[in-house]
Amino acid sequence: MSFVFDPPAPPSLAVRGRSARFPVHRIYCVGRNFAEHAREMGAEVERGTPVFFMKPADAVVPGGGALPYPPGTSDLHHEVELVVALGRDAEGEVPVERALDLVFGHGVGLDLTRRDLQARAKEKRLPWDTAKGFDASAPVSELVPASVASPGVDSRLWLEVNGALRQQATLGEMVFGVAEILHELSRLFRLRAGDLVFMGTPAGVAALQPGDRFRAGIDGLVTFEGRIAAP
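Now predict its structure.
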């Protein structure tokens, strides 16, 4: 097969203890999956259907580092999240009781958001893709294979900015667990090895400024850090 130009290398993430990298296929994100965050954004959570949106695969920034302040915004927000990486394909709807069989490993990431663009889109009842799916909007740590370690419901998800704690919650506070989310996604999409699922953020989202340094983690599993560079 030939191409009219050389295609770029696929986006990928480091895997703890392995030289081989994890190729990213798609990025699915879960909205309003922590009740306190939903309330701080002016929404209530109902145990109905989860809220999904997507980011382009090449929005991934492996391991953090220096992240550019994105154009078109003056209100860039952090949202720290558990990231679930899939290592198997699924055909059709996946039962909840078998959904975790798809999981390759876990990491921690930031769902960076141009909050001012999102707010304006919400006011006009328009899609808010530009608020979520921009370049470098998905920095992610290395992945920890599930065969090595997995987070539990008591594991703490957290984010520090300039040394001060901004967000924290236990994973048990998620409205929908990982198996439930994978089941619901499989009803809408063909899940594939290489998919990442950002599982939603706790309360405490706030602005990031050029020069800010962040450190994020899941206790007992993984941490990573970076900084916001100049525009």
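The chain is about 10% helix and 30% strand.
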